[in-house]
Amino acid sequence: MTWSSALAPLRNRNFAWYFASRTTNTLGTMMANIALTFAVLDIDGRAVAIGQVLAAHTIPMILLLLWGGVLSDRFPRAVVLQASNIASALTQGVIAVLVLTGTAELWMVIVLSAVHGAVSAISMPAMAGMVPQLVAREQLQPANALLSLTRNGLTVLGPTVGALLVVTAGAGWALAIDALAWALAALCLTRVRIPPLERAASDSTIAELREGWTFFRRTTWLWVVVLGFGGLNAIHHGAIFTLGPVVAEDTIGRQGWGYVLSAEALGLLVMTVILLRVRLERPLLWGMLACASMSLPMLMLGLDPVLVALVVAAFVGGMGLEVFGMGWNLAMQENIDDHLLSRAYSYDMLGSFIAMPIGQLAWGPLGEVFGNDRVLVASGVAYAVICALVLCSRSVRTLPRAPVAPAATASGPTP
Description:
CATH class: Mainly Alpha
Number of strands: 0
Helix content: over 70%
Oligomer: single chain
Number of helices: 17
Number of domains: 1
Low-confidence stretches: 406-415
């Protein structure tokens, strides 16, 4: 794959504006994630409080994901994203004002996080299903890689800049930047012009949900990976996002934790550059093998939270996550029809995210009972074991890349 072909999607006007939208809100979100975590710690210094805020975002997101998938297959996905971006700007803006004015209480942050989670349930299936409508099939890997490149590049700086803002100006300013970014992202999407998907006018929401479920349960590689990620995401969110900041507070410090998160993002970025040039064959086989490396930072946190070792482990884990992310998007986008894609992604997200609140709510109390170090080591071991179990499925190991259609009949708009 040449650099010219790797950058070809950017010559497509629709993809270029979508790319600008994603880049804008990613910059704000990456800073806001760490800012919100430490804002909660300033309000209530317990890991349990962080878990409650994270779960407040996740639970409504999970409950509404399937509905979001139906909306995203029924209405223009760009319009769905515009509306959700505006709503996200409003919720994050209110949190920022509360934090900046010193009036924020834990229950307020929990309520606003729940609203933002409900909005995310609508936007995520739409976002996942957009790319095949913007580029031709042969451009799917470079298009996904370009989106990952800007996301991961900004993620390298985002946590560190966010941590610096927390230390110097306060968490509220990072949250305010995130609100502005969501608004600008919605403005960029007004320039995206794609035709609506064809659908039968008589289809009901229940019928569309049933159609999506039938496809999901009959596609073995799909439900096996989703089942595995139900456990993996619970562990990741419990170990890294709930216990991680608490352990960092007492060992490597807040700024050090920002370095660790940035190292993970740097690993994602390096692998993205590689995948711009290297075609990924057997996407799920290599994806799951690489994903197992995310167990390393959990083990390091539990065994010996030394900054240098954690930075290296997070870098390797980030590379592995990017291989899986690319492999998963290619598997979905190349093997699922456009009219079903957002619903398939919504079932994927539902199954993958449904156990996340368990990790967010349970890992804090588990750490208090058994010790954070023991829980983190057990989490790392369990993470690697689940990856190995997913690979026991032959359909996961052997799923190939889909053949590229001839240029004259390739799907997707041309530049």
